[in-house]
Design goal:
The complex is a heterodimer of chains A (261) and B (394). Helices cover 27% and strands 27% of the residues of chain A. With 261 residues, chain A is an alpha/beta fold. Chain B is α+β, with helices and mostly antiparallel strands. The longest helix of chain B has 37 residues. Classes of the chains: A alpha/beta (261), B alpha+beta (394).
Chain lengths: 261, 394
């Protein structure tokens, strides 16, 4: 069975700042990393991998995104595919999902597609569900852990607002995982790193993918980013320490001054 | 050489950095205080493939190049201000390299698996009370006894004695086999420290206290023939390849420890105000910062050039002498330059810099040892001068 994991190389957002003049991300000198949520998804795939299963990682991005895929290979993926073409540039989540879905179709029959909850740069959490929509397959979101995979069925523990639930779905399907607090990302060992470059690695462009070229990149995007900005810092609150009657009066004054009441 | 690392080396750096920053950095000072590297850190280092990283694939190791081994050393040095894990790593890396190159199949299959799993330690034991950099003055002897060899003597100021005695393992050692031949009669071999003829002693060190320092007497210890590294009586030449590997790693470690300390210093002098302005605004301080940074960056480059020369030598693209010279150039001032930088960072931090809570004082104590370990600064000068003067006696 093919287990497909979609991953993204992202800037390490703990080090990203926004240029207040241009409202754009300052990427200079910021290291690129494998999206941590995607590493969780990959490690879930590795956990359930059976003897005859094959883990394929796919990423859409510039040639430099190879680094993230190599890390996936070092972590235990069997092969990697980088989707890279100038035409893919400027893709929103829909165009990205369409591109990834085209690559998945090209791979033929598969069992499970794994995606991280979201990418730490955009935080949209849309790509996974959109791929499932395009491929018309079931999806399980907010996955905490896979409980069982047998035959053509998958049982999973899924997070809910007030706890969890156990769900069941038929294969092929797509799952997006939350990253549980107990998850400790694996650091790839030296031996695996040395073997990573020897594993199959493919680079596909738009011609190789086929499909509708108008649906790739900026042309195929349904949304546009108008502006990126940091939300204003929350101002310090006012603490009223007076006796109850005086405190209420002061509060009323403040609320009325701010035209709340 | 340009310091452009390969994709693998970048991955190695990232993986080791994440491990070292999360598992070692937070407990570094504690390791010094408790005089022990916790077993879970050693296990983590083993799982990551750091221990015995130069062992070949045939023996279960990743068979890393010297430059890649340098990348690991650099990341450990940035995370571990005490230098304890750096030593725990660099010794098996260097002497594992020698064992991998000159050891018998039987010895490699016996020693490497337990080194790689973190169960055993592999060290180096050449120093004696009256023989340090002057290896020829070694008094320990090794004699043939049928199919085996018998060793007698004493070794002193050796890293990892307690570790090898307690958990298992041994040290690569040198002894005179044919005393009348001088340095041409010395043999290198693997000596397990678990033999009953080994009696250990321990010496408290100034720094890098997470790993033990000590010595041991060797009383009629019998070793099998397959523990001999390379040809008998050729040990003096063989042992220098191990030294050089360790010296080049030490240069990179010193540069990283010094640069990490400067990072601490930069954060401090930008923040701390004295007489109405930040310390960084004083030329007396920022000139020193610039000088230290320049020297340490040069040192880092020299260290990697030395490591690259070791790699090229294995491919037949560099000579022994080229490597010796580059390694000695890198090692010569590594401790002095790093110590100078760290000492100034301690000074900038005032009384805190002198307290045991300050990471930089631990780094200074660790780095100070490298002016002596694996060949003194003075010997490095002798090597460079010898190469420049064409090996003649003047």
């Amino acid at each position: 069975m093919k287990l497909i994991v979609c991953v993204k190389q992202v800037p390490d957002t703990t080090q990203v700042k926004i240029d207040p003049e241009t409202n754009t991300l300052i990427r200079e000198g910021v290291p690129s990393i494998l999206n941590p949520f995607d590493q969780f998804a990959l490690e879930e795939a590795i956990k359930i991998k059976q003897e005859n299963d094959e883990i394929i990682v796919i990423s859409m991005g510039p040639p430099q995104a190879k680094k993230a895929l190599l890390k996936c290979l070092a972590l235990g993926a069997d092969s990697a595919i980088l989707l890279t073409d100038r035409i893919f540039a400027g893709a929103d989540t829909f165009a990205t999902s369409y591109t990834l879905a085209q690559a998945i179709k090209k791979l033929g029959e598969f069992g499970i597609i794994f995606c991280g909850l979201q990418a730490i740069d955009g935080d949209t959490a849309q790509v996974g569900p959109e791929i499932a929509g395009i491929l018309n397959i079931p999806q399980i979101t907010y996955l905490e852990s896979i409980e069982d995979v047998s035959g053509k069925k998958l049982v999973a523990r899924v997070q809910t607002d007030d706890g969890y639930k156990i769900v069941e779905a038929r294969l092929p399907l797509l799952i997006t995982g939350i990253t549980t607090s107990s998850f400790e990302p694996t650091n790839p060992p030296m031996m695996s790193i040395m073997k990573a470059n020897k594993k199959p690695f493919f680079t596909w462009d738009a011609n190789e993918l086929g499909g509708d070229k108008d649906k790739y990149g900026l042309n195929g995007s349904l949304t546009q980013v108008i502006k990126i900005y940091s939300p204003p810092t929350k101002e310090k609150g006012v603490i009223i320490n007076d006796p109850p009657e005086a405190a209420v009066n002061k509060l009323m004054d403040l609320l009325s001054k701010d035209k709340v009441i | 050489m340009s310091l452009k690392f390969t994709e693998e080396q970048e991955m190695i750096r990232e993986s080791v950095r994440e491990f070292a920053q999360s598992k070692i950095a937070p407990i570094a000072l504690e390791m010094d205080e408790k005089k022990e590297i916790p077993q879970d850190v050693i296990k983590g280092m083993a799982e990551l493939g750091l221990l015995g990283c130069t062992a070949g694939e045939a023996y279960g190791g990743p068979g890393l190049s010297a430059v890649s081994a340098g990348v690991i050393a650099e990341e450990l040095a940035k995370a571990d201000c005490t230098g304890s894990t750096c030593v725990y790593y660099l010794v098996p890396a260097s002497w594992g390299f020698l064992l991998n190159k000159y050891g018998t199949e039987e010895a490699k299959k016996e020693v490497f698996p337990k080194l790689l799993s973190g169960e055993h330690f592999l060290g180096i034991a050449t120093t004696e009370s009256d023989a340090g950099s002057d290896v020829g003055a070694t008094k320990t002897t090794i004699k043939k006894d049928g199919d085996n060899f018998v060793v007698n003597g004493e070794k002193m100021y050796i890293s990892g004695v307690r570790e090898a005695v307690t958990y298992g393992g041994g040290h690569v050692t040198i002894a005179h086999q044919s005393k009348e031949l001088g340095t041409r009669g010395m043999t290198v071999f693997y000596l397990p420290l678990t033999d009953e003829g080994i009696t250990p002693t321990y010496i408290p060190d100034l720094g890098r206290e997470g790993i033990s320092c000590g010595g041991f007497t060797i009383d009629n210890v019998k070793i099998p023939k397959h523990y001999i590294l390379g040809e008998e009586n050729k040990g003096f030449y063989i042992i220098h390849e191990g030294y050089e590997y360790a010296r080049a790693l030490i240069a990179v470690i010193c540069a990283a420890a010094g640069l990490k300390s400067l990072e601490n210093g930069i954060a401090y002098i930008k923040e701390r105000k004295s007489f109405g302005k930040p310390l960084a605004a004083y030329q007396g301080i920022n000139f020193k910062l610039a000088e230290h940074y320049t020297k340490l960056s040069m040192l880092r480059d020299l260290g990697y050039q030395a490591l690259l020369s070791i790699d090229l030598e294995q491919e037949g693209k560099a000579t022994r002498f080229e490597t010796s010279k580059k390694v000695a150039m890198a090692k010569m001032f590594c401790s002095e330059w790093a110590c100078d930088a760290i000492n100034d960072v301690m000074q900038w931090q005032g009384a805190f810099g002198y307290s045991r809570e300050c990471q930089d004082q631990a780094a200074w104590r660790a780095v100070r040892s490298f002016s002596l370990a694996e060949g003194t600064k003075e010997v490095m000068k002798m090597i460079v001068a010898r190469e420049l003067l064409g090996n003649k006696q003047y």
